[in-house]
Amino acid sequence: MAIDTSLLLELAAATLLFFITRFFIRSLLLKSSRKLPPGPKGWPLVGALPLLGNMPHVALAKMAKRYGPVMFLKMGTNSMVVASTPGAARAFLKTLDINFSNRPPNAGATLLAYHAQDMVFADYGARWKLLRKLSNLHMLGGKALEDWSQVRAVELGHMLRAMLELSQRAEPVVVPEMLTFSMANMIGQVILSRRVFETKGSESNEFRDMVVELMTTAGYFNIGDFIPSIAWLDIQGIQRGMKHLHRKFDRLLTKMMEEHTASAHERKGNPDFLDVIMANQENSTGEKLTITNIKALLLNLFTAGTDTSSSVIEWSLAEMLKNPSILKRAHEEMDQVIGRSRRLVESDLPKLPYLQAICKESFRKHPSTPLNLPRVSTQACEVNGYYIPKNTRLSVNIWAIGRDPDVWESPEEFRPERFLSGRNEKIDPRGNDFELIPFGAGRRICAGTRMGIVLVEYILGTLVHSFDWKMPDGVEINMDEAFGLALQKAVSLSAMVTPRLHQSAYAV
After folding, report:
1. Per the UniProt record, which EC number(s) apply here (predicted)?
2. pLDDT tens digit string along 72-82?
3. Hey, what domains does the chain have and what are their CATH numbers?
4. Which end of the chain, N or C, is less surrounded by CB atoms within 10 Å?
């Protein structure tokens, strides 16, 4: 009997020990599998928000050096994960692309983009797919871009002649104003069959100011987005500014659409982009587009279509003015391929590898969107062994990837030559090479990627080929950044130009 009792006690103890051990092992495994990525502790209530400062992309890049390529931040009552290397970006935007295909709710989407009724902020679904499909077919896709190549050539001709007049009067060219005026007219011709601005003046300058304000405010880290319970206080005044700006854009878009409807008889048999979109309000997919959806889409195309490409071209010119040897080499390549008796045409671009390298280097060092538009996780997931909870915001620091010394040799230097040979020669900015993703990647890659590359290469190439560039006497070039959804120069580039082509080239 004693033996039986002892045996039973040993069996009971062994069983108890087994279950206790199993419980602790499971708890430890569960805990380890739910280990959040490292990151700063932040402050009570507001979390890491105060740590971002006025230049969030720079602050986050510095934090990543301490905490690693996948970093977790508590932002008010929300969670945010930041990817700062090509590998981390690939994990989120390729491997887990579908899980991060939606946008988080934010004031910009609500107050500027008609409650996310546009293509940029819309949820990943049927309406987003329809807007994107129509935009690709009739404006942003390869065939559509070919169809309106003549529009780009004509509008660029107007810009060259305006710059020629300034050079004859010995007046500087304010580069971003000139670019916005021209590019808004290019887009207006495609969407509305007319120039948006007939002459450069106060109206076009006001439009540029509106575009810059939108791209700046939409990039702010708004406290109300991260602590919704106090959003109504609008502590930073961001939401008041957004509401005012939205009313101005809505008036402009309403006027455009009303004038477009009134001139419908002039376009019979030759529909433009807006005609096509209006005709697809009742779509075969069953998804209905409202007037609000259409206004929101036009807002996307006019703002992102002008500001992002404009900023890259301005940065490129600034870098060449800072590094005259780069400008000289670009001129030599163009003189050899094109000569000086005619303007550059788009078919010349594949024959100008150094120009294309300059554009890639600008995309690397000065990406138009330093932090990609935020995404949010639909489900909990794991990245690099770290647990990412459901409803975590994702920010990919594109600026940090372009400045990563583990990826790029001497990243602070502007060296187009890095793309002419070696491992970087085949790198392409269209979203497949995560070392260079100025337009993002995955399902939510910028819809205007093709258009952006064409505009940057063609317009920058034409400006460089057509003129010699120099800073006004006594003026030093300022290379400071101004943070926003698009990365602006803090001080607009203003430069003197001198024509370098045969006079007949400017008359075409």
Report:
1. 1.14.14.81
2. 999 999 999 99
3. 33-507 (1.10.630.10)
4. N
